[in-house]
Amino acid sequence: MHTNSAVLFNENTSFTYVDVIVPLYLKNTLTWFVPSQFHNGIAVGVRVEVQIGKSRRYAGIIKKIHQDKPANIEVKPILNVLDDRPILHEDQLKLWAWISKYYMCTEGEVMIAALPSHLKLSSETVVVFNPDHEVDTQTLNEKEYLVSEALEIRSELKISEIQKILDSNHVYPVIKQLIDKRICLVFEQMNETYKAKTETYIHLNSIYHNEEVLETLVNSWSKAPKQLDLLLSFLHLQRTQGDVLKSALLKKANASPAVFDGLVAKDILKVEKRQVDRLPNLPKEFNINFRLSVAQETALMQIQESFQQFPATLLHGVTGSGKTMVYIKLLEQFIKKGVQSLFLLPEIALTSQIIRKLRDHLGGHVAIYHSKFNMSERLELWHKVKSGEVKVVLGARSALFLPFSKLEFIIIDEEHDASYKQQDPAPRYNARDAAIFYAGLVNAKVLLGSATPSLETYYNATTHKYGLVKLSERFGNLELPDITTIDLKLEALDAGQSQIFAPLTIDSIRATLDKGRQIIIFQNRRGYSPYIICNTCSWIPKCTNCDVSLNYHKSSNKLHCHYCGSTYPLYKTCGNCGNQDLLQKNFGTEHIEENLETVFPEQKVARMDTDSIKGKHSHDTLIKQFEEHKIDLLVGTQMVVKGLDFDNVGAVVIPDGDSILHFNDFRVNERAFQLIEQVSGRAGRKNEHGQVFIQLRDTNHPLIEKLQKHDYDAFYNTEIQERQMFFYPPFSRIINVQSRHNDAFASKEAMTIFCNFIRQQYPQFVFGPAQPVINKVRNQYIFECMLKFQKNRQIIDGIKSAIETAVVEVLNHPHLKRTIFTVDVDPL
Ligand SMILES: Nc1ncnc2c1ncn2[C@@H]1O[C@H](COP(=O)(O)OP(=O)(O)OP(=O)(O)O)[C@@H](O)[C@H]1O
Ligand SMILES: [Zn+2]
């Protein structure tokens, strides 16, 4: 009975509760009770340790503090407060909430995408020992020491194992400390392959920091005079230069590594492997050593005027017009004002080229947020952005989630790029659109840049929802390249030397090479040949998990599935009729590379696609080699298209234009125009006029003439009419829904029930169920439907809630409960 009276007593005083976001797929935000000892530590944006279920623990983020006891459920207490101040601002949480609502995912899923892994902890988290960090054990308390010692021996531990080691469930604060002290890292599969560059620094064992002890050591030195010499050189260097690099020490003392190792063995010198910032810490200085052209200057002024009037402005500047220089000028102004800016780029365009350019002119004011950088660096940047120390962040879509304190300017370069949209997993958000929403929240100005804007953005600009500024000439008054078509109906492929290029194309390539200029060959397909087909019965080998045709890769001499990565041995005979007459149809980048090597044996050929950059040549190395003219012919996929700036490209060749122009999607024309105009735009950017050669059969395709005139407006005017006629975006909104199940019938039934449910309410909006072109991936059968409807707030909200109800409805059928639904809002 006395327990009851205790509760009664407490209910008179007010209880404090917190709503907490945890990095999980959970439909509803959960609520915890805050024990009184934590009352002073809690705030919105602070991480707390919470338990879900019997044993799983998470570091969640406080979203709301309140006094409303949730009805009908037992509320558990939070276990710990992990931060002494919020790790993000309330505006960030508003952005999370918007993304979750708009893109129909949970805030937990947004949290997973938004936070660097070092800020996310859960029972499943694995922490690893940081091999590059010398642990100064004196700075650790007993618990931290125990864990760091265990980590050093075992190199990785699950959080549950750490709980055992400490014989306590309260381990999150200890782990947080160890992360802050850089002794442990949170393990992430993705980063395994990335090896940060390290340099070896030397320290004196701290017992010799005491002058007397050091003197005794030196004076009583007997054997190994070379070691003593080295030690003295070290002491000298340390006094004169501060941090001592091992390489510098050995050079100065002219000593061998063995002598050095002797001093380490005696525990006199200590070795510290320090991760080198790939980017040197540049001074925060400007170096604006260029002048804008008259056209650029005018554009700059118009952008500033437009900022007074519109929340977002489109800079529509042709390829090579120098949009980057205009961005740099604007960034300079915002930095000088003391406020922050965010420069977003598609991941793949985030190369050392653009990084170099920004840092050349804006120095240490620019920081980079890149998935290639290690996790400690990302955590450090997180804090520097929050404190306002960092003024400009250059990054891909996830940089939007950084905790800016006074963000006033967002650049979204190559705004048309589909990789701003995250495909898988959820949140399936478009960082461009989320950035525009966020800018509205914090009152920042947005500049969208592109030579080939998306239809949606150009529509917004021409209907005065956004401002529009044009930059219609290339810098240095260079002309845009000439586009020539090579008609494959008339020009047979060169049967002798090449099954890929027509003789006319080869002649044109040769003429360009003879002038000492470089060439880019664009083919949007990896591998050797996209598919193999039986000449007798037309059988095509397919992936048994994914129902897509397999691609032959010569380097592995195997057939590859580009969807699930499975490989298959090469077929010698047809799997259907047994005939041995198998043909390779079409060609991928690998085949082109090989072909060029045969036709141009004297020239250096290289390939840039996701296969080639995994190996010894990284994306950046290839770009650098091409810049330095060490490569004559560069074959590549989309990767060669994105915003690259080379000075000596004489020609761009597109060997298979038809495959770009014919594709089963309502955005085919937009994609084709963007792709061809962008890849063409890599030619003739400096000095001399560039050429583009497109091999194709469909030479009368209406896009070709518009491309030849580089007439975006003509393309837009035709395309926008078609969109209106067929009620596609930007005139309508689309949500795609897919069902997946390892049983084909179940998947179809699930989608059918789903569609019927939505149809009851919105009969005219549902298109489906349908089987997508690729209808089996990783042994899951896929069915889909498209919901297409008016851009009307009420309808959109209605449809979204109907989708949620319909999913629940389907999953209520016992035999369908394992169906996976994915919802893609504004799919690309
Ligand atoms: N004002 C200027 N002074 C000196 N060089 C300039 C200036 N403007 C542009 N350039 C040079 O012209 C080239 C093209 O500029 P930039 O790369 O900014 O074009 P862009 O508009 O971004 O093109 P794309 O859309 O094709 O990526 C670059 O090498 C750039 O350094
Ligand atoms: Zn497959």
UniProtKB/TrEMBL annotation:
Q: Where does Zn(2+) 2 bind?
A: C543, C546, C561, C564
| Gene3D superfamilies, A to Z | P-loop containing nucleotide triphosphate hydrolases, PriA, 3(prime) DNA-binding domain
Q: Could you confirm whether the keyword Metal-binding appears in this record? A: yes
Cofactor(s) annotated in UniProt: Zn(2+)
List UniProt keywords, sorted A-Z: ATP-binding, DNA replication, DNA-binding, Helicase, Hydrolase, Isomerase, Metal-binding, Nucleotide-binding, Primosome, Zinc
Any idea which positions bind Zn(2+) 1? Answer: C534, C537, C574, C577
Q: Which residues form the Helicase C-terminal domain?
A: 569-726
Q: Which residues form the Helicase ATP-binding domain?
A: 304-471
Q: How is the cofactor bound?
A: Binds 2 zinc ions per subunit.
InterPro entries assigned to the protein according to its UniProt record, in alphabetical order? DEAD/DEAH_box_helicase_dom, Helicase_ATP-bd, Helicase_C-like, P-loop_NTPase, PriA, PriA_3primeBD, PriA_3primeBD_sf, PriA_C
Q: What is its EC number?
A: 5.6.2.4
Subunit structure, briefly?
Component of the replication restart primosome.
Entry's PANTHER family?
PRIMOSOMAL PROTEIN N
Per the similarity annotation, which family is this?
Belongs to the helicase family. PriA subfamily.
Its protein name is: Replication restart protein PriA
Question: What gene is this protein a product of?
Answer: priA
